[in-house]
């Protein structure tokens, strides 16, 4: 049961996300009936499944919201901004009730419901009420739930009671499908029902009873006396209704038998995202088939699998080494086969861990909505490249830095409507989030069209903090980098949103912790752009194994542009300037032997590995290039984690350890060296 | 007559075990009686199981009965619409109505 509750919680979180997205869309398109219906269905599902799994506080609270929102759905009140915002706030409360069902949330919930009630009252009259239903109609409602309904916690009696609540109901069970005991799967549902219901409510109210089991059931609703049926509903009846009165002995439709699909048992039908009401059953069938194509796996199992693959890759590289050192041809053949297979396994594993950044970007719509309300600024968020995929671990760790950057953009970057008007800009400020893949990295940019970074203020602050000498010449790029210093904030007043002086340095550290880099560009009056370059994965990379002195090091292969030879003569000639000429451009290089103070004499033929991060490149002088190496990244111990030159370590096939070079740091160091040289010249 | 004691709640989580007990009893005897503990918890899945057992008895020419009138079943039977158009046979089986037992 605990597993069922865990699944419910996962599904409910997803449902809450959908509700939030629907509400945010509704702010832009308040007239969109499909959106209103989608949100209502989300609330209804949450209420029903919450009650089913014992989340009574959640079910109760959601019930009130659903009732209030039902008035929007019925067209009695308009989806005003206030009303939608109140439901958004209520949604947050539902999330709390989901995560902490035993907590004391009553008072907060009551306050939210009072807000919602007020918003509904104010919205009342903003929409023309629907024409009242004329008289009572008698309907024949026939339904069969999916065979696995009992196992999934669906309760047919609750549905029947809901129908009874609508009016006078004559309920007859259909036992014709119940098989003899010896042929019976005892936890399958074999019963069907025919309910003759006389009610003043319309067809949609009856459909709502089944709203969160609609996907996988058969349902027919017919007006028994057509004369009495409300005329505006009759034409809709034919196209909307599910298959009409399927013969009771007809084979159950594919959609009603998800238990045969390998994964559906793990997914309670009752909490499956609801399809539009009275969707044709064929579409429902296709949906069920589609659901069967994916399996929900807990993230920690994926991590565990990733660890195993990592260990396998290490063992394989050991095997390769033993095979390569011996003369056994057969062993070598097997070793090569295993190398190929483990490489493929690694690639497959990587794909499994990839998730689209849309899962991340989606959260920020709400953030921007809240920021707009808090700051009183009109803000529009647009996103691009949402299908770009990144390792799930990276995605999780990117969330906080991005929240901070977006807050910064909204709070500091974008001007007030008056200031924007004065600057000749449209009143609505824009924040654009985009992502694209570039080699082994994903580049995420956050751009705003605000006032841009005030260089004078940055300079003044940097001078007052002693980061630069007063009046010192400093490049624009370096000046902007100042904002990444700890405790650096130019905000004149600390606001609720940002400007507490803790932020950009933490953002930078987090991004660098992901082996990524952060860059900022800004044009006064036109806005700022922060770019994050993040590696696709944190777990295993292709590396170039090199030797420097007696030590072995791994350079991430994605960063390697080319390898050159540096003869002893050239090395001696370049002493004191450390540049190599590469196709008419001078590239600075770092002698790793000197940096690491190996105390060994240089090899006769040293190698230069040219590495780059975006536009910047440098050469790294090593003693020997050993070859490519599938590198399982292990984090450094606490003692060594502060060393900026290395981003991690890996275990080699012979059991030795190689440190992984942090290319971003080395490139920055090389560029710094180049700048110093230029100054010296 | 073979008596099957139903001492666990007649609900979805227990029906598989009870199904087997009833089938075993049918193997051993032509007449099987289900003896429910008083105020036994019953759900719709339990009721469905008893319905299937009745069909089994009919299919193999044996008899099935309840040891006591099944008042514990009544709320579920009513709510699920089993009693709306119940036959005399149904009422006799569930509540011993019109029966000499």
Name some characteristics of this structure.
heterodimer; A: 681 residues; alpha+beta; Four Helix Bundle (Hemerythrin (Met), subunit A); five-stranded mixed sheet; 21 strands; 43% helix; flat; B: 101 residues; alpha/beta; Transcription Regulator spoIIAA; three-stranded parallel sheet; 4 helices; globular
Walk me through what this model shows.
The complex is a heterodimer of chains A (681) and B (101). With 681 residues, chain A is an alpha+beta fold. Chain A folds into 5 domains: 2-123, HPT domain (Four Helix Bundle (Hemerythrin (Met), subunit A), Up-down Bundle); 137-290; 299-355; 357-535, Histidine kinase-like ATPase, C-terminal domain (Heat Shock Protein 90, 2-Layer Sandwich); 540-680, SH3 Domains (SH3 type barrels). Chain A contains 20 helices and 21 strands. A 5-stranded mixed β-sheet of chain A has the order 6-8-9-11-10. Chain A has a 5-stranded mixed β-sheet with strand order 19-12-13-21-20. In chain A, strands 14-17-18-16-15 form a 5-stranded mixed β-sheet. In chain A, β17 and β18 form a beta hairpin. In chain A, α1 (2-28) packs across α12 (358-375) and α3 runs antiparallel to α4. By secondary structure, chain B is of the alpha/beta class. Chain B is 45% helix and 15% strand. In chain B, strands 1-2-3 form a 3-stranded parallel β-sheet. In chain B, α1 (15-28) runs parallel beside α2. The longest helix of chain B has 17 residues, at 44-60. In chain B, 36% of the residues are buried. At the A-B interface, α6 and β2 of A face α1 and α2 of B.
